[in-house]
Amino acid sequence: MSKSFERYQKRKLISSYFSVVLSIALVLFLLGVLGLLVINTKKLADHFKEQVAITVFLKDNAKEVEISQLQKSLAMADYTREASFVSKDEAAEMHSKEIGENFLEYLGYNPLQNSIDLRLKADYVANDSIQMIAADLQNRSFVDEVSYDQPLISLLNENVRRMSFWILVASGVFTLIAVLLINSSIRLSVYSKRFIIKTMQMVGATKRFIRRPFIWKSVKLGMIGAVVAIIALVAGLYYLDQRFPQMQLLGEPETLGMLCLGIFAMGIVITYISTYIATQRFLNLRTDDLYY
Questions:
Q1: Torsion of CA 267, 273, 278, 281, to 10 degrees
Q2: Cα(91)–Cα(97) distance, integer angstroms
Q3: Is the pLDDT of residue 8 over 50?
Q4: CB 30 within 8 A of CB 170
């Protein structure tokens, strides 16, 4: 009879640990997915920013040496992602394709100018930065005009700020929910041992001595749950990367590594704090209150 009861207790204990690990793993996995969303949202915003072009129109009397030096200096600048020269003939050909007819035939000459299309790195796509760059380029004697779409840049930055704000709010809400869910699982696990906690306290054990095994056990469960969440997250990313290689989900292993470390650390920190609070609560209760 005693052996069957012991087996029942072991199965119950293993089931309790399994449910705690599973709940921690699921919550941390969702947090990892949210972290990936935040990272890729920034990448997406940077991608759109880097499509904004500044066109530097050159005077007809500009020398090839001056144009070549300007293009090289722009290519080496910290703010440049790409700088490409577009001749007036190439510009005319592209414009003819856009409008669907050869406008040179009835004009008799090419009114377009040689130009350099400049695309900036995402961090420099702001009106203040672009105005400084444009002013510097405009000071060159062979530059006729520096053109860019200022309203588009303002709208783009405003939308990116708004999107970042709401993603930050959503991240905060989901993180709070994750903490509450893990905390509930830990509290239920500690609650089942509340009489053991009070018995140890009644025979003279200190609060620190009583808390230590509970905290260490919960931290180990948190570490196991975090490892399970990381494996599931990496496996999901690998599958999606194989199906959609153009998304380059595994293109930044350093960022993915930092995210996995964050998930692992969060599993430890949340379980430690939750267990500390839960055990402290039962340590401070009177014996009669344990039955409610």
A1: 180
A2: 10
A3: no
A4: no
Place of tokens 């290689």: 245
Give the whole-angstrom CA distance, residue 83 versus residue 59: 18
Top-confidence residue, 146 or 105: 146
Query: At 83, phi and psi to the nearest 5?
Result: -135, 120
Integer Cα distance of 188 and 68 in angstroms: 71
pLDDT per residue as tens digits for the range 241-270: 787 776 666 777 888 888 889 889 988 888
Q: Checking phi first, is residue 90 left (phi over 0); if not, alpha (psi -120 to 50) or beta?
A: alpha
Tracing tokens 């722009």 back to the chain, one arrives at 74
Q: How confident is the model at residue 1 (pLDDT cuts 50, 70, 90)?
A: very low
* CA R_g for the chain: 31
Nearest by Cα to 80 from 46, 119, 54: 119
Structural domain spans, the chain: 2-47+157-291, 53-148
Question: 131: Cβ–Cβ under 8 A, 6 or more apart, which residues?
Answer: none
- CATH T-level fold of 53-148: Alpha-Beta Plaits (3.30.70)
